[in-house]
Specification:
By secondary structure, this protein is mainly α. The protein has 12 helices and 10 strands. The strands form 4 sheets. The protein has a 3-stranded antiparallel beta sheet, with no helix packed on it. A 3-stranded antiparallel beta sheet has the order 6-8-9.
């Protein structure tokens, strides 16, 4: 059992507000007779028979085990159980859900049944978003030695965290699947483009989606590349202080992933800010873009990333071209981003030195 019996007793007494006596605890799967066609399930329910002043009853305690069906992370399993509690009692003839809770490291049980929305409390980190640097350079089209040093520092940071590897096919498959199917991923972006948006009619978005699906099957068996990642490494999630001292915010979508996710997330912004102001890629943004990629490749030696980044580039460009996220973007810039998506998805290998060809 993932808990102590005395902890279960304390939990039940708190839930019912009265003394409780536990009669028995048994795995319900043990009651099944003979062989079962279905050999897999998402958890092992426990039947808990107990009595309290209002009478006797039997409850079923459900937990979930990690598996490859989008239940790898504790947060995945929490999501399923919270949804169960929110919906079971709304369906006619469904068994009642009595409570939902969490198990602690020492085997205690904590009730979450009265919760509604969850929150996260973090420490405050001083600093200015790296996006402020890019906005400044977009006004002047000048870069300082510090700007160049910061770009190299960011590339070094990614190279450092990406050194932590794990060859876990299930985790890698999940990350690549979420790249496409998650609501914050490619399909979520495509689904939220306005239906009457002239620059992105449904047939254009469908072609992008189909190309990304092909890329998923091309790269999904690259689990040897699974690395520690940030997951949303863009200029608004990096806070710089003096010099090259910085901290990061809002790690997203899990601990492990494809290094191309982080690299494309940051590097595409050097293109974006130049396109936004000048309609084309110019220095210093071109220099910073190439400097970032060169530093990362020199530090990691990861040439394979040039054949794995294409759907990640498409995803980030879909965000930047999105009229909900960037409603005031000039039409010409959006069109360039869509051309970039088409060109990068059509390329077997992405060479940063040839970036102008991908924007053409």
């Amino acid at each position: 059992m993932p808990f102590r019996e005395e902890a279960l007793l304390s939990y039940l007494e708190g839930l019912f507000g009265a003394p409780v006596e536990i009669r028995s605890i048994r795995p319900l799967a043990a009651d099944k007779k003979g062989a079962s066609l279905k050999r897999f399930g998402y958890g092992m329910p426990l039947g808990v028979a107990f009595s309290h002043p209002a009478g006797e009853e039997t409850a079923v305690l459900h937990t979930m085990a990690p598996d490859a069906f989008s239940h790898e992370r504790p947060s995945d399993r929490a999501c399923n159980l919270l949804l169960d509690y929110a919906t079971f009692n709304r369906l006619p003839r469904h068994v009642d859900a009595l409570d939902v809770g969490a198990l602690t490291g020492d085997g205690s049980l904590i009730s979450l049944g009265e919760t509604n929305e969850f929150f996260l409390l973090t420490r405050f980190s001083p600093g200015d978003p790296y996006a402020d640097d890019l906005h400044r350079m977009a006004r002047t089209f000048e870069a300082s030695d510090l700007d160049r040093a910061r770009v190299e520092t960011l590339a070094d940071y990614l190279a450092g965290i990406h050194e932590d590897k794990s060859d876990d096919a299930v985790r890698y498959h999940r990350r690549i699947r979420d790249l496409l199917g998650h609501g914050e991923g490619i399909m979520g972006m495509l689904d939220t483009y306005p239906a009457d948006f002239a620059q992105a009619p449904p047939e254009r978005l469908a072609r992008i989606e189909e190309a990304c699906v092909r890329w998923r099957w091309r790269i999904k068996e690259s689990s040897h590349r699974l690395s520690c990642v940030h997951g949303d490494f863009h200029p608004w999630n990096v806070l710089f202080r003096e010099g090259t001292d910085f901290s990061v915010l809002d790690r997203s979508r899990g601990e492990w992933g494809e290094p191309a996710d982080d690299v494309t997330c940051m590097s595409i912004n050097f293109l974006f800010f130049s396109l936004w102001k000048r309609g084309r890629l110019e220095d210093p943004f071109r220099d910073l873009y190439l400097r970032f990629w060169k530093r990362y490749l020199d530090r990691t030696g990861d040439k394979e990333i040039l054949e794995r980044n294409q759907p990640f580039h498409a995803w980030r460009a879909l965000v930047l071209a999105h009229p909900v996220w960037y409603p005031d973007l000039p039409e010409g810039v959006r069109e360039t981003l869509f051309r970039f998506i088409d060109n990068v998805l059509d390329a077997e290998r992405f060479e940063p030195d040839g970036i102008e060809e991908f924007l053409a």
